[in-house]
Every structure is written in structure tokens, then in C-alpha cells.
Write a structure and sequence with these properties.
Structural class: alpha+beta
Helix content: 40-55%
Radius of gyration: 55 Å
Strand content: 25-35%
CATH architecture of the largest domain: Alpha-Beta Barrel
Distance between the termini: 137 Å
Number of strands: 32
């Protein structure tokens, strides 16, 4: 081909145009720049021109699409002597806008240098074929769109296999279109259904019998149930061509049916074994059905009650009303389910409370009334018991705080209406904790029950005796003319409690502190009366107990003052008005400063400095001592760490800890944070506790102390000698330091009476391995005496008064007891 193209003389061997045009339908010749130089009449007619009119025009004008143009340009440029022939299909557009399809064979003619000089193209009209193909394609697409929009699966198969599946079938089977054309369809069928399905398909092809069956699939997401139908399609001669079928996903419907069937079965079982009484009555009020539970609730056998009127279950005087109710019920057709229980008559004559629900039903065209009766006797008794438990103390069966508050408000309202007063006695047992701890909780409970009975014995039937909580009792007395009625009642209560109690085989003596509050207006509330009586009780207990106090205007002023102090203290915590002062602790022999004790002060915004004796008790009562103590601990740790960094490397710190911090706060967490934030070495810190704090709850105190000591912190007992403990008892407590109370130190100046006691305490404490520190050292004589007794450490005004951090002298001390040391040691 390339040789022929390379030799122009071979052009004469080509057929003349008339010969070539007789062999093909369309002929056109054009130059490499796509200019037409010749076209036969068929091509010219197709383009809507004469052959002469086409000469000189570009062949690109008659191509329908840009891609076809670009392809011809690209392919033409690629023609070469080595590859001079090309075949392609293009769409051509005529002058009338008609589009036709043609297959062209192009042959390049080349000069001696291999350059294309002419392109000859012969084409065949493919328009009829492509038109049919496009019509078929559009028909198939319409069929596919129709099938894919169907809510059921659609498939088409012949003897060779699957020809078509729609989108819904692919979703049902969890397969792609391509996968459904393979044997993957059978792979998804439950193995137990495969044989049945294949046999049904064979029968369909062989006998033409329509297929209608259910199959189960195993697909991702869980098993499915399909309803499959199929029919055989034949040609005009009755020859089978293919099978067309549908698949309906019945999974949810079958599951619903199964669930409904199970529900109905459960319902039947419930009815058959119903615990509730079920009674059916016709329109005349005659009983037609009476189940076993009804026999139990109402006492009748079904044989004796069926046929009798429904109002058999109400008292005779109520029968007309029951009969009228039945008639009105059938007239209205309403369902009745009253909230409150009703009482029906048992065969033995007693009334049974039941919860009843009635509804109308139609049985074989006859209107019936079905009544479901539930015996609520036990429930009501249980509810009454729960109500009693919610409003009464479980131990003494007395009214509790909640019920008492309701009774107080009602009593005040009645008193205001009748013009009488109300008295409230708040009694707290003295030393009850001592009895509880020594004899045990069971004995304590026994004592509380006995106390409640004695108080009840001296009150009037109209008085309310309540247990407020713990060892606190409250008496509400109504119809009083003045507070003297409450005083007389308080005297009787105190007297009756003074007699000994027999508890756990022991004789126990008990007393109480009583506060009395009186109200003769409608303006007082349960909260106010209780608070006032409680405050008066605390005043009585502070006075030694076994007495009563009356809340009056003076006490109200005192209460107001305490509340104002509490509010001010809260603001002080928020506004950072608390200061930490420090008192040095020294070594008695040489006067060197060994540590400091942190002492809190409150400096108000007006500059007044308030000492702790004025506010610590309020802080303790309100719980503010916990955040207050936390502030003091953190600030003092920070300050001492700063002093140690500045050169006082061995300086120690003592911080007082309250009972609330020890037993109810997070003392371990507070100490850990204070040490971590300040960087203070744990052994430098000593937490000081009073004896009474330790003895409030021994086990809990020991547990917290041990966890604090595990941090490396030391523990000290402050004000030793003022509490109830002994040195022997202290063996139980993991303590390191013992501080002798200032009262003992002060009496060293008064003579020799207290000296042996102090000496003995120091000696015994030292034998237990405890460091002894004397508090309140104010004179040289006291210091010398303590040194002679073997006390090495002390603090007090003799050495230095408490002062703010900036005024503490850590390097100076009074003249040390060096001469005394020489006397003692002989050196």
C-alpha cells in the first residue's frame, strides 16, 4: 500500500470515478486541509447540495459533533504511507438538520516525500441500522426505568440463565446487577429452599405451570422472606422463550403476623390465667360469665352466680342505682375506668375494695358489658403502710419531721381561728452519745423507744409527740393561753426523764435540754417555730442541760447577732478578709525558734481585727470552718515554705484542725493540695487536734489521721488536759506531738499543787515517744520549771506574741535558759 502511494504512476491503476462510485454508496475526495474536490451524487444528495456545489467546501461543515470533527482532524494528520487506510463511524448533518450515521473508509494518496496530497473516502449509510438500534436501546431503557421503579423485584430468565433483574430485586438479594446474572442468586437462597426452588423452576419450563411460592434468603443484614411468582412466556407458536417473575419482600409482614400471633397467644394465656376477676353481663344486667379469679374475689361459685343480676355485688339499698347505671352504660356505650377504687359486696357480707374497668363488647350480635375487677385490698393496706412509713419514725412510730411540719402549720391556723396559742418543745437528750457508744446501738435504740413512751405518757391526747431525728424529740401543744402551758409541759417531760431507765440489763440515767417556742399569731410558720425552739434548746444545753429555756426577744436578738456574724464570715471568706498570724515555738533551753503556729484573724473592711473566739464557734456550727481551715492551711504552708527557702530551713508549722475538717471534710485532699502547691516538706507540717475532736468518733478519727500521716505529716494533740482522754488512751491514736494546755502552765506560778501533774504528764508523754510542747508560757519562772520537768519546747507571750508574717521575728529570742541548763546538766 505504501509503495503504491509512493508512486504517482499507479494512479492510473485506480478505477475511474464512475467505476468506484458504482461499488459504494457514498464517495468523497478532499485535500489534507479538508476541502472537497469531488463528491458523488449520493453524497451530495445526502448533504442537500449538488455535486458541483460541494466542491470547494470543507468536509468538516457536515459533521454533527465537535468530537467527530476533532477525530477526523487528528486521524487525517496521522495518515502516512505506512498506515494509509482508516475506518471510522461519524454522524453527518444535512442542510435540513437531519442526522445520519455512516461508516467511512479513508485512503491517503501521498507524494514521493510521503506527504498526503489527497484523501479518498468511501462510506456506507448506517442510518437505518442505528435508528433501529437506538429505538431498541430507548425501549430497553424505558423498560429498565419502569422495572426499577416497581416496588417489587422483577426478573427475566431463559434456559441459559438470568437475563435481567431490576433495582428492587438487587436490593432484596444484596447483589449488583452483574452479580444477579450469575449463579450468585442461588447462593443467597436458604439451603433448605434451594431444591424446592430448582424443582419448581423445572416444572415451570416443562409444564408451564405458574410458580407461586415463598423462599428464604440469607443476606447481609439478616434473613429475608420473599414471595416469588413467575410465569412462562411463549412465542406465537407456543414455544417457551423466557420466564418473567416478581419477588415481594414479605419479611416485615411475616414478622408482624408472627408477632401478632404471638401477642394473641399471650393474650389468650393471660385471659385464661387472669388474676383479675372478669365478669360479663348482658343488657338486662344478668351475669353470663364469671371466671375463676372472680370466684376468689367475690366468694361465689360460677354455677351459683351466673344468671343472677349484677347488683348482687352491692348492698340492697344501692341496687336501684346499680340497675340504672347498667342501663345508662349500654345506652352510652362508654368505656369506664374510674381512678378511685369502689367497694363490692363479698358473699360473706364484707366489702372488698376493687379497681374496676368496664367496656362494651358485641358477642354474636348481642351487646355485652365486660367488667374487670382487681382486688386492691393488699395494695391499699401497703399504701397505707408506706404513707405511715413516710410520715412516721420507723423506730418509735412517732410522727417524723415531715408530718410534724404539716401538723404545726395546721395547729397555727386553728389557733389563729380559735384565738389560742401554739407551743413547741424541742428536746435533745443529754449524753445520749455516751450511752450509745458504751452500750451499743441496739441499746441506744431501746433507750430512744423508752424515752418516746415516757414523753408520750406526760402529754395530752391532743398534743403531738414527734421524733425530729437522732436523739431529738419535739412536742406540739395546741390550745394554750400563754407560754406557761409549754413551761408546765416541759417540767413534766424533764421530771419523767430523770427516773432511771432499764436498758440492756443496765440502769441508765438520762436528762434532756428543752427549748420552748410559743406563737399566738398566724404569722409564724413551722420552720420559724422549730428554729426558735431549737435555738432555745441549744441555750439550755450550753447552760449544762437538764433544764429548759424559753425563746424570747433577748434570745431573738442573740440569734440575729449570730446570723449576722455568719453572713459576715461568709463574706469574709469570699473577700479574702481572713489573715493568718503566727506565734513562734521555741526550744526552751536556748530560745531558738523551731517553728510557728498558724492562728486565724478576721480583719473587717473597716479595719477592725476580730479574734477567733468571736467567730470560730459560728464557723463550726455552720460548717464554714471547713473552707476557713482550708484557707489557713494553704496560706500558712505557702508562708513557711517561703521562710524555709529564705534560710530558715528547719522551720516547722503547726495548724489547728477542727472536728468538722477531720470527720466531714476532705482533710487528706486539702493537705495534699496545700503541700503540692507550696512545696513545703511534709514532715515540717504538724496538724493539731483537740482531745474532744478525737473522741467524737474514735474509729473515723484514727482512719483519717493514719491517711494524713501516710503523706509524711505529723499529728499533735492540742490543749491536752482539758478533755476526757488519758495518756493510756492516747496509745490508740497515731500522734507525734502533745501540747500541754495553758491552764496547767499558768498554775505553775501559783505553787506546787499543779507541778507534779505537769511533771507526770511530761514524763509519761516522753515515755510514749511524744514531743511535748507547753502552751501559754508567759514568765521566766514558768519556762524554768518546764525545763526542770524535762519539757524541751514551748510557746507563749514570754517569747513572742502572735503577729502577721511581716512582723514575726524568727532570728531573735529572749535570753535562753543557759544558766539553768548548766544547773541541770552540770556543764
Amino acid at each position: 500500500m505504501s509503495d503504491r502511494a509512493a508512486n504517482p504512476s499507479t494512479a492510473r491503476l485506480r478505477p475511474e470515478p464512475s467505476e468506484r462510485e458504482a461499488q459504494v454508496a457514498l464517495v468523497v475526495r478532499y485535500l489534507p486541509d479538508f476541502t472537497i474536490v469531488h463528491a458523488n451524487e449520493a453524497y451530495a444528495a445526502l448533504m442537500g447540495f449538488s455535486a458541483e456545489q460541494l466542491v470547494g467546501r470543507s468536509i468538516l461543515e457536515f459533521l454533527e459533533s465537535d468530537p467527530d470533527r476533532e477525530r477526523i482532524i487528528s486521524d487525517t494528520r496521522a495518515l502516512c504511507p505506512e498506515d494509509p487506510i482508516q475506518t471510522m463511524e461519524v454522524q453527518t448533518i444535512g442542510t435540513d438538520g437531519s442526522i445520519s450515521w455512516h461508516r467511512w473508509t479513508r485512503v491517503g494518496v501521498f507524494d514521493r516525500d510521503g506527504n498526503a496530497v489527497l484523501i479518498e473516502a468511501a462510506g456506507t449509510d448506517l442510518t437505518p441500522v442505528r435508528t433501529i438500534e437506538n429505538a431498541l436501546r430507548e425501549s430497553e431503557e424505558r423498560f429498565r426505568l419502569l422495572a426499577d421503579s416497581a416496588p417489587v423485584g422483577v426478573f427475566l430468565i431463559d434456559e441459559s440463565g438470568v437475563l435481567f433483574t431490576n433495582a428492587e430485586l438487587q436490593r432484596q438479594w444484596g447483589l449488583t446487577f452483574e452479580e444477579t446474572l450469575s449463579e450468585a442468586l442461588l447462593d443467597r437462597v436458604d439451603p433448605d429452599d434451594v431444591g424446592h426452588l430448582q424443582e419448581a423452576r423445572s416444572t415451570l419450563w416443562r409444564e408451564g405451570e405458574p410458580l407461586d411460592t415463598y423462599i428464604r434468603l440469607r443476606v447481609p443484614g439478616g434473613p429475608r422472606n420473599l414471595h416469588l411468582t413467575a410465569q412462562l412466556a411463549t412465542d406465537a407458536d407456543g414455544v417457551p422463550r423466557f420466564v418473567v417473575g416478581t419477588t415481594q419482600d414479605e419479611t416485615d409482614r411475616i414478622a408482624d403476623q408472627q408477632q401478632l400471633a404471638e401477642s394473641e397467644e399471650r393474650f389468650r394465656a393471660i385471659v385464661e390465667n387472669a388474676a383479675d376477676a372478669i365478669v360479663t353481663v348482658d343488657e338486662s344486667g344478668t351475669i353470663t360469665e364469671f371466671n375463676a379469679a372472680a370466684e376468689q374475689v367475690l366468694g361465689y361459685d360460677s354455677d351459683e352466680i351466673i344468671g343472677r343480676p349484677f347488683w348482687t355485688f352491692v348492698r340492697e339499698k344501692d341496687s336501684p342505682g346499680a340497675e340504672l347505671f347498667i342501663r345508662e352504660f349500654f345506652a352510652s356505650g362508654l368505656t369506664i375506668d374510674p381512678d378511685s377504687p369502689v367497694k363490692v359486696l363479698h358473699k360473706d357480707g364484707r366489702e372488698v375494695p376493687v379497681k374496676i374497668a368496664m367496656s362494651a363488647v358485641t358477642v354474636k350480635g348481642q351487646n355485652m358489658l365486660t367488667a374487670v375487677l382487681r382486688d386492691v385490698s393488699e395494695r391499699l393496706a401497703f399504701e397505707q403502710e408506706l404513707e405511715h412509713q413516710a410520715t412516721h419514725d420507723a423506730l418509735t412510730s412517732l410522727p417524723n419531721r415531715a408530718l410534724l411540719n404539716e401538723q404545726i402549720d395546721l395547729a397555727v391556723a386553728r389557733g389563729h381561728r380559735l384565738g389560742t396559742g401554739v407551743g413547741l418543745l424541742f428536746a435533745d437528750l443529754d449524753r445520749f452519745k455516751l450511752v450509745n457508744d458504751s452500750l451499743g446501738h441496739n441499746a441506744g435504740d431501746e433507750l430512744l423507744v423508752a424515752v418516746s413512751k415516757r414523753i408520750r405518757s406526760v402529754t395530752r391526747p391532743t398534743d403531738t409527740v414527734a421524733r425530729f431525728g437522732g436523739d431529738e424529740f419535739v412536742v406540739l401543744a395546741e390550745d394554750l393561753t400563754d407560754v406557761r402551758g409549754g413551761v408546765a409541759l416541759a417540767d413534766r417531760v424533764l421530771d419523767v426523764l430523770r427516773a432511771p431507765f432499764a436498758v440492756a440489763g443496765d440502769e441508765v440515767y438520762m436528762s434532756a435540754s428543752i427549748g420552748i417556742a410559743y406563737c399566738d399569731t398566724a404569722n409564724c410558720s413551722a420552720e420559724q417555730l422549730t428554729r426558735d425552739a431549737d435555738m432555745a434548746m441549744y441555750r439550755a444545753k450550753s447552760a449544762g442541760g437538764d433544764k429548759f429555756e424559753i425563746f424570747d426577744a433577748e434570745m431573738a436578738a442573740w440569734v440575729a447577732e449570730r446570723r449576722a456574724l455568719e453572713l459576715g464570715l461568709r463574706h469574709a471568706l469570699d473577700r479574702d478578709e481572713l489573715e493568718v498570724h503566727y506565734q513562734t515555738m521555741v526550744r526552751l533551753l536556748d530560745g531558738s525558734v523551731e517553728g510557728v503556729e498558724a492562728l486565724v484573724r478576721w480583719r473587717r473592711d473597716d479595719g477592725e481585727l476580730i479574734m477567733p473566739a468571736s467567730f470560730i464557734s459560728v464557723a463550726e456550727e455552720t460548717g464554714l470552718i471547713v473552707p476557713l481551715g482550708r484557707q489557713v492551711l494553704r496560706e500558712s504552708c505557702r508562708q513557711v515554705a517561703e521562710w524555709r527557702t529564705a534560710g530558715h530551713v528547719d522551720l516547722g508549722l503547726a495548724v489547728n484542725i477542727s472536728g468538722r475538717q477531720l470527720l466531714y471534710g476532705d482533710l487528706v485532699g486539702d493537705v495534699r493540695c496545700a503541700l503540692a502547691d507550696s512545696g513545703l516538706d511534709p514532715p515540717a507540717l504538724c496538724l493539731e487536734l483537740t482531745e474532744s475532736v478525737l473522741l467524737d468518733d474514735v474509729d473515723a478519727a484514727i482512719d483519717t489521721i493514719e491517711r494524713v500521716r501516710a503523706l509524711g505529716v505529723r499529728i499533735g494533740i492540742d490543749d491536752f488536759g482539758t478533755g476526757y482522754s488519758s495518756l493510756t488512751y492516747l496509745r490508740r491514736f497515731p500522734v507525734d506531738v502533745l501540747k500541754i494546755d495553758r491552764a496547767f502552765v499558768a498554775e505553775l506560778d501559783g505553787g506546787a499543787e499543779r507541778a507534779p501533774i505537769v511533771s507526770m504528764v511530761i514524763a509519761l508523754a516522753s515515755s510514749l515517744g511524744l514531743t511535748v510542747v507547753a502552751e501559754g508560757v508567759e514568765t521566766e519562772f514558768q519556762r524554768d520549771q518546764l525545763v526542770r520537768f524535762g519539757c524541751d519546747h514551748g510557746q507563749g507571750y514570754f517569747f513572742q506574741r502572735p503577729a502577721p508574717a511581716g512582723e514575726v521575728e524568727l532570728d531573735e529570742s529572749p535570753q535562753p535558759a543557759l544558766g539553768l541548763r548548766r544547773q541541770i546538766t552540770g556543764s
